[in-house]
Each structure stands twice: as structure tokens, then as C-alpha cells.
Amino acid sequence: MQLKPLPLGFREVHRLRQVINVLVKYGFGWVVDKAGLTHLLSVGRRLLRFQEKIPLTPPQRLRKVLEELGPSFIKLGQVLSTRPDLVPEEFIQELKKLRDEVAPLPWQDVEPLLKDEWGENWESTVRISVKEPMASASIAQVYLGELTTGEEVVLKVLRPGIRETVKRDIEVMRLLARLLERYLPESRLYHPVELVEEFAFTIAREMDFTIEAANAERMRANMRGFKWVVVPKIYWELTTRSILVMEQVEGVRLDQPHVLDEKGIDRPTVAQRLLTAFLKQAMEDGLFHADPHPSNILIGENGEIVYVDFGMTGYLDGTVRDLLATLMIRIVKRDYDGIIKAFKRMGATGEELDERRFKLEIMGLLEPYFSRSLEGMPLGTVVNQVIQISLRYHIRFPPEFYLLGRALVLMDSNLRYLYPELNVIDMVTPFIVRTVRERRHPKRVAILLERGWDEMKEGMRAFPSEMLYAIQRLNRGETHLHLSHEGAERLEEVMERNSLRLSITLLLILFVVIGTWGLSSPWGWRWQIAGLPIFPLISYGLGGIMTLLLLGSLLFRRK
Questions:
Q1: pLDDT of residue 115
Q2: Do 448 and 401 belong to one domain?
Q3: Which end of the chain is more exposed for a tag (fewer CB within 10 A), N or C?
């Protein structure tokens, strides 16, 4: 293989040498060979080709590699553990064991960052009596502090130099990913370049503490109606991209049920509150806590749910939430045909889906739970099995869906600590019913129709320029048009019939939008008959005629 200069600086090349030496150390020398990087190995490693004395499985060896390479690669492993659509299950289970805990940096290394962010006189604002961090992770260290006003706070401080370290490591990851896709075709199944880019986006957001603070503030506003949910106050005047300052809160870890019992806190109530808060976040708000680990959620003295870390949050837009609600409704009704349709709408299928076999597998998974008491339903197990079945049928969901699945698995673990007998379906059903009611509310329908009308107008406005652009590309030879005359004898008839239906449908939408607009506008009620507005009635009447014409076209079409 002809060697080409590496598109990296000196520091990146040095780091790349470290990476490939560790890969060879744990038995991944064949990857280095395939990528054409053997010449970068140290002389000793080339001669020794070290093998572990204790036999390890490939997933275990990969975990060892990531742990030895440090913070950036540990974070990469944690991102990989949330992507069952790209990483085999046995690797995911091993990557979940990665611990984001590293030796703390000494105070003299951290203090300069505080001076850079707050100025030389920063101690006139915040006092940090204990210079040892209460927690130390790969990206940040956490300290207890006190404002000069007397309020106790928690400071999350970015580790000095971590942005430069991550940037260097990502460049190395990008190069390795490109080489793998080029020289190791089987790796393309796992989309290494896509994974690295997703990781780069994720970790960049995680190293910006203003984003974490904004997520905390938004969740605090969303949960304001729940008196038993505590989200710490953010001190925005002190928060920067590198420092997060928030109110100090106290509580008991979720995985210490014996302590809850000693304090007289009712565990079933806590479990119900925990699941209710999560369902509201996911199903109603769209912003959910994606890492409900026992160390990130505490229980207050009166059974309050106390959130203390917002570094990993998930976002579900309205469309995804609607599809998720539809799926849950179908599951509760045991409507398996509807479940298959919901899956197809939520995910992208890479090839023709064998719906009959897929339905049988889903039925085989869910029916046993409907056939017995639903108390203690293993939510995490069910979610994992549903995802695995979907992946076997080449259904890929948006990344947020897998993040939600991971959060559900962690939530299931928390519920088992607190109250294993909790009936999950009984808790989920009210949210489903509320979602269905909201979907059918006239205001929601009117908003959707208005949005559809706006999109239609935008499409009609853009159509001429888009068509001109397509014709220009065709004239320049950048686009090739392939026509086939098979079935041309019926083409004109079909096009004419479908054009008529499209025109009727557009008129139907127009009349419904105008009628709905008239009902919600003062001018629509200006002229009335028997207390009813004239123009909305006329518009709806014309819409009814269009509906009858459309139905007639569909029911009595020529065979």
C-alpha cells in the first residue's frame, strides 16, 4: 500500500501513534494493518505485538482500549453505548461499564481558569473553602462553594485544557474513521465517520455549560406545576461556557432504598413521582432527562425528586412525540397492525419490510405481558427487546429515540430499587389519554391546517424557481432524465384522474382553512343566520361538497 502524508499536525500524529500502539496492545493489530498505519508503530510494539495473558472477548478488549486512551475515548464509548442501531448488543453491554471518573486535577491547575472567567478578584464573589473537588469526571470537576450573600452553591468547572485535548482526539478519530471506511469495507455497516461526527457534536455541547444551564432552566419551568420536583436554581450572572454555578441541594441517592426507609420516606410514592415526572418530560414537554442515573437524581426529605445534573438531555419534537403516543396507544390496545404502521412511520426501513414476520415477533414479545399481571413489567427489558427486533428488520430510528430508550432502561432500574411492583401501564395510560384529547382539540386541528396551508403556499411560491433550477441543471448535463414508455396507454388517463383528485383535495383544504379561520376571527361572525356565522358555514358547506366529489372519484373510479 502506498503511504501518503497524514493530514495531521505534529501533536495529532503523536497522539495517533499512541492510539495505534494501544490498539495493537489489545489485539486490534489487524485493524492497524488494514488502515495502512503499521509504519507508525513503535519499534518495540512491532517486534512484540503484545497479547493479553488473560483471554478477553472483543468487547472487553475494546473497553480496555477506550479506558487506556483517556477522557475523549471514554466519552466516545459512552456515546456508542446509546446506539444499538450501529453497535452490536454485546459491545453495548460492555461499553456501559465505562466509568467517567478520573483522578482530580490539583487546585493550582484549576484556579487560573476561574481567574480567566471571573477576573483576579473572583474570591470577592464566591468562596471555596475546600479545595478538593466533591466529584471529578473526564470533562469537569465539581466543588462546593458559598456566595458572599451566604447562599451555598455547586460549581461545575471545566477541566483546563480539555477542549484542546478533545479537539486533537477528534481529528485522530476522523482520520481513523475515514481509513476504516476506505480500507475495511465491512466497517461501513457501522458508519464510523457518522459516529465520529455525532460524537463531535455531542461533546462540543457537553463542554458548553451555558447549554446545560439553559436545559436546567427550561426543565425547571416545565416542572413548575409539580411541587414535589426540585430543579436547582441557576446563577446566570456567574455561569459561563466553562463554569456552571447552581444552587446546592441535598438528598438521598435512588440506589439507597434502606436509607429512604430509615428516613420514613414512602418508596412507592417516590417511584410513582419519578415515573410521572419522566413521562411528562418525554410525552408533553419534549425535553427529558436522558441520564437518570442514581447519582444524578436524589430524593429529598419529603420524597421530592431532586435533579442535580443536566449534562445529558434529550429532545423530542412534536412529530416524534405524536408518533410515540400513537405507538403507545396501539400497544395498549394490542393493535399489532397499528403497531407495525407506527414503527414504519417512526423509523426508516433500509429494504422491503416483511410485515407478517415482524408482527409475529412483536406479538411474541408483548403478548406474554398482556396475559399476566402487568405489575413489575420489566420496562427496560421490553424496550431493549423491541429495539433489537426492529434492528433485525432494518428499521432505524432517529438518534433521539435510542437516547429515550436508554433513559427508559435506567428509569426501569431506578423503579426496581424503589418499588418493583409498580404497574407501569396504569401510569402510562393517563398520559396517552391526555395526548389523544389534545390531538383532537379544535385549536390543535386549526393550527395544523394553518401550518399545512402555509407550507403549501411556500411550496407554490418556490416551485417556479426550483423548476427553473432543475431545467438549468438538465441543460448543463448535471442531471440525466430517464423516461420509460411502459404502460403509456393508461398514463394519460391516470394522470388526468389524479390531477382532478388533487384539485378537489386542494379546494377541500382551502375551504376548511377559510372556515376555521372565520370561526376564530371577528369578521367571520359579522353576518349571522340564527346565531350561526354565514361565511364559515358556506366555506364548510363547499368543503363538504368537495369531500363528496373526492369520495365519488375514489369509490366509482373506472376499473
A1: 92
A2: no
A3: C
Q: Check residue 321 and give its pLDDT.
A: 82
Annotate 467-506 with DSSP letters as a single string.
HHHHHHHHHHTSS------TTHHHHHHHHHHHHHHHHHHH
SS3 letters across 30-70: HHHHHCCCHHHCCHHHHHHCCCCCCCCCHHHHHHHHHHHHC
Supply 173's cell numbers.
Answer: 478519530
- Please provide the DSSP assignment of 123-159 as one string: GGTEE----S-SEE-SSEEEEEEEETTS-EEEEEEEP
Residues 536 and 410 in one domain: no
374 in the same domain as 502: no
Same domain for 392 and 451 = no
Domain co-membership, 173 together with 200: yes
In the prediction, which pLDDT does 448 show? 57
Give a yes or no: residue 213 inside a domain. Answer: no
Alpha helices of 86-240 — where are they, by DSSP H? 89-95, 107-118, 162-183, 192-206, 209-222
Residues 6 or more apart whose Cβ sits within 8 Å of residue 345: 323, 326
Residues contacting residue 159 through CB under 8 Å, at least 6 positions apart: 71, 105, 110, 138, 139, 140, 141
On whether the CB atoms of residues 74 and 50 are closer than 8 A, the answer is no
pLDDT of residue 481: 57
Do 63 and 75 lie in one domain? The reply is yes
- Contact (Cβ atoms closer than 8 angstroms) between residue 267 and residue 257: yes
Using alpha carbons, select from 483, 430, 143, 167 the residue that is nearest to residue 279: 430
Active site residues: 291
pLDDT digit string, tens, across residues 404-420: 888 888 888 888 888 88
Q: What is the pLDDT of residue 235?
A: 96
Q: Which residues of the chain have pLDDT under 50?
A: 1-5, 47, 50, 52, 374, 558-559
Query: Would residue 405 count as lying in a domain?
Result: yes
Same domain, 335 and 315: yes
- Structural domain ending residue among the three candidates 174, 205, 236: 205
Distance CA 519, CA 524 (A): 6
> Does residue 401 lie in a domain region?
yes
Q: How would you class 140 by CB atoms within 10 Å of its CB: exposed for 0-12, middle for 13-18, buried for 19 or more?
A: buried
Residue 76 within a domain: yes
Cα 368 to Cα 27, 92, 361, 364, 372, distances in angstroms: 43, 26, 12, 7, 7
**Could you give the number of structural domains in the chain?**
3
Query: What is the rounded distance in angstroms from the CA atom of residue 152 to the CA atom of residue 126?
Result: 9
Domain that holds residue 342: 250-440
By the 8 A CB rule, do 83 and 195 touch? yes
